[in-house]
Amino acid sequence: MGFWELLVIAIVALLVLGPERLPGAIRSTMKTVRSVKQFGQQMQAELSDNLRIHELHQKLKDAEAKNLLNLSDDEKAAIKELTEAANSVRPSNAQMSLNNLTQQLGKDLTPTSSETVVKDENKTGS
């Protein structure tokens, strides 16, 4: 909106609401606009997270199809990121060290001592 359009809206609002109710109406409108913007930002962040999760899941499927052999750097990075995410959610279930995964991947990812890999629950049936 241009300056003149905003000026016309302000004059009409002043005439309709009067000088007593106009400040409250402006505050209410601003509060509504702020909440709509916040909702939009939250939805955008959630969609972005879901898209990233889908992308990582697809790379994991690709890596599993290759039996974790001859993986691209993207696939290795995706496995490492998923491993770290799984460990941050369920650290007590982590069984296999990241060093073992590194040996499977054939590349040294230089993990910290606290990084571990979640045990493959499908193989154990648990």
Automatic annotation (TrEMBL):
<keyword id="KW-1003">Cell membrane</keyword>
<protein>
    <submittedName>
        <fullName>Sec-independent protein translocase protein TatB</fullName>
    </submittedName>
</protein>
<dbReference type="InterPro" id="IPR003369">
    <property type="entry name" value="TatA/B/E"/>
</dbReference>
<keyword id="KW-0813">Transport</keyword>
<keyword id="KW-0472">Membrane</keyword>
<keyword id="KW-0653">Protein transport</keyword>
<dbReference type="Pfam" id="PF02416">
    <property type="entry name" value="TatA_B_E"/>
</dbReference>
<keyword id="KW-0812">Transmembrane</keyword>
<dbReference type="InterPro" id="IPR018448">
    <property type="entry name" value="TatB"/>
</dbReference>
<keyword id="KW-1133">Transmembrane helix</keyword>
<feature type="compositionally biased region" description="Polar residues">
    <location>
        <begin position="104"/>
        <end position="116"/>
    </location>
</feature>
<feature type="region of interest" description="Disordered">
    <location>
        <begin position="104"/>
        <end position="126"/>
    </location>
</feature>
<keyword id="KW-0811">Translocation</keyword>
<feature type="compositionally biased region" description="Basic and acidic residues">
    <location>
        <begin position="117"/>
        <end position="126"/>
    </location>
</feature>
